[in-house]
Design goal:
alpha+beta, Helicase, Ruva Protein, domain 3, Methylamine Dehydrogenase, Chain H, six-stranded antiparallel sheet, 25 helices
């Protein structure tokens, strides 16, 4: 906020100006409105002289009345500035001003000053004529921020030129400041205007009326289409505030059901946070009036749940609802209504229907940018704003992909965001490194990240200062090696500058403390001859501890390097668990078996049968160290158990181990909520949640979601980071009586699709009479009907079926739907195979064996032919150019691994440039079809698409695929999909991305297109959905 008067030469220096609450802008000093020191008499004279038209400071110094006025103002810069703006000439005018200022019996007192500030402000405002004064008073309706001229003009119903001229007049009278198309009223002036206008009972409705005037003006400006009002920096952040102040139900209903306005607001704010705040305030408003608030609470929850989808569709609320809402809700109906209107104006929308997936997490937001962004960490919201840290554009070995022709570059960033607002707090660029792990301190002010360059090294970073913090040299003056296995910040509020490290050889734990610009060691450390399997801070009610464990083993020299993990003779069936009090540095230790086996009565006992026993893999602490949570598993097996064990000195494992979960798969981590009521078990591909009461399980919940998991400290809110998205589950409302699935898909086997469903969907005529024939053939081949691909060759009415190639033996079935001619051709390979490319006439298959090979098959009418078999060495790779306008295809090939100069010699400049820009090993297919060129890898993933001179390269880690060859070469629309995340629609000529439609829980196996209905059917192994583009009606 700026102040109330200009002073170009009030102070001799910037230092003095700053001290007196002034700042420099455009060569002028402007007054701040914070609490600052009073002006001295000399400074007040300089300020008055600056504002006076004819008087200089000497003239003012010689006038004793002026001194009396300055003394009456008590050095308050605002009051002196307002007096200067009155342009007082005679002693009589100065005396009148002094009398008003000195008057002690003012009806209203402002800011507890010892003079009549209210009268001083009134004196200044009353200098305005009767036409302008009401306009100035109306400015009190705005929030105490910079007010854009456009909003001022809307309020006054003036054009912007007229409004600007009036504001300049008010500025010249020091009533406000005007700069860069915004005006600002001093806080005290706003206080004065609001007391003057709103203090009397007869004026209680004036505030409501004034806000209604502003909203009416806004509506008239945009003709009721709220999203068309220009972004002036005030309208979108504050529209709902003023509508609520006006208590205008009609406008509130209109705005809060205008998804176009919401879209525009999200795009401007770059977050849904502020829209969420508006919805919260509106819901509270409706609740107080006993009106329907549930509908808008439903919208609020959907926006939070689908924030990642909003990111993909550029904040388009209509598109998001059409994509994710499978119900017949009011939101869906409103979105359809608005979409139809917008389609008539040239917009396009995609709609999903018949999906079986249900979204039941509470919130989801995009954080990472590629699949290598896998590590996040969060601070403690009790110690400051909740912050989240992670990577964006992470990549192994080197965080850059640089192309010569298209100048592609991807740089890795460590990003710290405010979790609520999604606003970036800081970005740390590490362009040539792969970041393995990130950590953030409990207060969110310090970060650490593990970088991989030539070796693993940890960097600790001061987020406030935006600089690295170095480890102090040791006593010998040597640099400390920072190649730790892990770095963790202490979770206690009083110890957020304390760090724990585990050495690279996993044998030493050390505690450090950040002091100024250095990290210094403390005298607290733990050294063991055995490998420490696990080490973590544990925050308890009255203390913080270090929890660690290690298993014992035998070796020739007692060193870990001599230990053979697979040699059971070297094992001792004992693990040591230690609990260190971080303050007192005292230790409690416990012995538990390393291997256990189950008895028939459900109890478990220690066993030396290491080959068949269950191995201790994870531990945690429950109920403030009253219990240990122990996980015993067999790797890659569902055989396993998790149980509680009291932390007592003498443990009788067989009698005291209390199983709480059986038949659990491989356990990645065990987490406990802040209030100890929830245990989250992070398994290999799912999350199991146990609601606890004492030592008993009340209910069990399975989340069909995997990834990096953590509780937000002190809460029931569980975060799971998977495939660039952060999913948030609020586990507080878990049922206490039965198991509940709050994760994705309540799958219904009746809604899955097989090959016959897909053929019917595509609308192939004459298919029905051959269905029994096809079914019989598939049964003979023992083929699963949901693991088959097919193609329909329209030119000769032939259906071609083939399985997902993954076995040694496979087949191709062709049936002519006109003649009934059929052929079953069995293909035998020596090793695993995969389809690289298939169209109506050709099938390209990659086979892995001692010498890898690419095979090209040509389909006929009831027959097939192996056209070419190209063997190549895996270390050399293979690049094949296929000219598709030839019949049969013309194929040229060479080794892939060549220097750029050699590639140019073999393929020419144009093709060599494209090949060199693709990061690939093994096999590449370069397909050329007229103006179109595409490059595929051996798995059929699209690495590059070219149309004439326009080129698009695709991230090799996103597994980009196309669903049929017609679409790959289409001039109308290019539809691509990333198997793990999204459907992406491109302009086929410019190759510009038009829209991203997310599939966060949908592994896309196959897509088919129904041309007649312009509809896609997309299926995974168990789910399916229908997708179509909305057309003009």
């Amino acid at each position: 906020m700026a102040g109330s008067g200009k002073t170009t030469t009030v102070c001799q220096s910037v230092r003095q100006a700053t001290k007196k609450g002034l700042f420099k802008s455009n060569g002028c000093y402007w007054m701040k409105i914070g609490k600052f020191e009073k002006l001295t008499y000399d400074e007040a004279i300089e300020l008055l002289a600056l504002l006076a038209v004819n008087d200089n400071d000497q003239t003012l110094r010689q006038n004793p009345v002026v001194k009396n006025v300055i003394d009456s103002c008590q050095g308050l810069p605002l009051a002196i500035t307002l007096i200067g703006g009155l342009d007082l000439k005679t002693d009589e005018e100065w005396n009148q001003a002094k009398d008003i200022i000195a008057k002690k019996s003012a009806d209203i007192e402002l800011a507890h000053y010892g003079f009549n500030l209210y009268g001083t402000l009134q004196l200044s405002v009353d200098t305005l004529n009767d036409e302008i004064r009401p306009l100035f008073e109306q400015l009190a309706v705005f929030k105490r921020v910079g007010i854009p001229i456009q909003s001022v003009a809307s309020l006054w119903n003036y054009d912007e030129i007229e409004a600007r001229n009036l504001v300049k007049k008010m500025h010249n009278k020091s009533l406000l400041t005007y700069d860069k198309e915004k005006c600002v009223l001093h806080d005290l002036m706003v206080d004065y205007l609001q007391q003057r206008l709103y203090s009397h009972n007869s004026n209680q409705d004036y505030r409501k009326s004034l806000n209604k005037t502003l909203i009416d003006s806004y509506r008239n400006q945009c003709d009721g289409k709220w999203n068309t009002f220009p972004d002036d920096g005030y309208f979108y952040p504050n529209l709902i505030y003023h509508a609520l102040m006006a208590e205008n139900d009609e406008y509130l209903q209109s705005i809060m059901t205008d998804f176009d306005w919401m879209t525009r607001k999200i795009q401007i704010d770059r977050t849904i946070y502020y829209l969420d705040c508006d919805l919260t305030n509106y819901i509270d408003y409706l609740k107080k009036r006993n009106k329907n608030w549930e509908d808008f609470d439903q919208l609020k929850q959907l926006l939070k749940q689908q924030q990642s989808c909003l990111d993909g569709v550029d904040g388009d609320v209509i598109q998001m609802i059409l994509w994710v809402d499978m119900s017949d809700s009011w939101m869906k109906q409103r979105a359809l209504q608005l979409a139809k209107e917008n389609v008539r104006n040239g917009k396009s929308y995609w709609r999903m229907s018949s999906a079986t997936t249900q979204y039941t997490y509470d919130a989801c937001k995009v954080f990472g940018k590629n699949r290598r962004d896998q590590s996040i960490s969060v601070s403690n919201p009790e110690f400051g704003p909740l912050r989240i840290i992670g990577t964006q554009n992470n990549n192994e070995e080197d965080c850059q992909i640089i192309g010569t022709q298209n100048n592609r570059r991807r740089d890795c960033q460590i990003v710290i965001q405010d979790y609520q607002t999604s606003q970036t707090v800081l970005q740390i660029s590490k362009p040539s490194m792969y970041i393995r792990e990130v950590e953030i301190s409990a207060d969110g002010r310090t970060a650490a990240f593990k970088q991989f360059n030539r070796k693993d090294e940890w960097i600790v970073y001061d987020l406030d200062k935006n600089e690295e913090i170095s480890f102090a040299q040791n006593d010998q003056g040597e640099d400390v090696k920072t190649d730790f296995d892990s770095v963790q910040f202490c979770p206690a509020q009083s110890q957020t500058q304390v760090i724990m490290t585990l050495s690279r050889n996993l044998c030493e734990v050390r505690i450090w403390k950040i002091e100024g610009n250095f990290i210094r060691p403390t005298n607290k450390q733990i050294s063991r001859q055995y490998k420490i399997e696990y080490c973590r801070w544990v925050l308890m009610q009255d203390s913080v501890c270090v929890l660690l464990w290690w298993r014992k083993y035998q070796s020739q020299r007692g060193k870990f390097e001599d230990y053979e993990r697979d040699d059971s003779e070297k094992w001792i069936n004992e693990c040591q668990i230690e609990m260190w009090n971080a303050q007192q540095w005292t230790c409690r230790s416990f012995k538990v078996p390393a291997f256990i086996h189950a008895k028939d009565d459900g109890r478990y006992f220690a066993t030396n049968d290491f080959q068949h026993g269950l191995l201790l893999t994870r531990i945690s602490i429950y109920r403030d160290a009253a219990y240990m949570i122990l996980s015993y598993n067999r790797f890659r097996s569902k055989s396993g158990t998790i149980g509680l064990l009291k932390m007592e000195q003498d443990i009788e494992f067989e009698n005291q181990f209390q199983p709480i979960l059986h038949d659990i798969g491989y356990v990645v981590d065990i987490l406990v909520s802040g209030d100890q009521s929830m245990i989250a078990i992070d398994c290999f591909k799912k999350e199991v949640i146990l609601k606890m009461s004492g030592g008993q399980v009340q209910s069990r919940v399975e989340l069909d979601q995997s990834g990096r998991s953590m509780f937000i400290p002190g809460s029931h809110r569980l975060l799971i980071y998977h495939a660039r998205n952060v999913y948030e589950y609020n586990l507080q409302d878990i049922s206490q009586t039965k198991s509940v699935d709050v994760g994705r898909p309540q799958r219904n086997p009746q809604t899955t699709v097989n090959i016959f469903d897909l053929i019917e969907f595509v609308g192939i005529e004459d298919y029905g009479k051959y269905r029994e024939l096809i079914n019989g053939i598939l049964e003979e081949e023992s083929a699963a009907k949901d693991l088959i691909h097919f193609r329909y060759r329209k030119k000769d009415n032939t259906l071609i079926l083939f399985p997902i190639f993954s076995s040694f033996n496979s087949w191709i079935i062709t049936i002519n739907l006109t003649t009934g001619m059929k052929s079953v051709d069995r293909l035998t390979w020596s090793h695993l195979v995969g389809v690289v490319y298939v169209d109506d006439d050709y099938l390209y298959v990659w086979e892995r064996k001692e010498d890898d090979s690419l095979k090209c098959y040509k389909f006929g009418d009831g027959e097939y032919q192996l056209l070419q078999n190209i063997d190549y060495q895996g270390e050399e790779g293979l690049i094949c150019k296929i000219m598709m306008n030839y019949n049969p295809h013309k194929i040229e090939h060479s080794p892939l691994r060549m220097k750029k100069e050699k590639l140019v010699d073999v393929w020419g400049d144009k093709h060599a440039e494209m090949i060199a820009n693709v990061l690939a090993m093994g096999l590449l297919l370069l397909l050329e079809n007229g103006d179109h060129i595409a490059i595929l890898n051996q798995d059929g993933n699209l690495y590059m698409k070219r149309y004439k001179d326009n080129i698009k390269y695709f991230d090799p880690f996103t597994y980009t695929q196309f669903f049929n060859h017609e679409n790959l070469w289409s001039d109308k629309q290019l539809i691509l999909y990333e198997k793990y995340s999204s459907l992406n629609i491109y302009n086929p000529q410019t190759l510009q991305l038009q829209i991203t439609l997310p599939f966060p829980h949908f592994y896309i196996e196959d897509m088919q297109w129904n041309l007649q209905h312009s509809q896609l059917i997309i299926r995974s192994d168990q789910d399916y959905c229908l997708v179509n583009s909305m057309k003009k009606e």
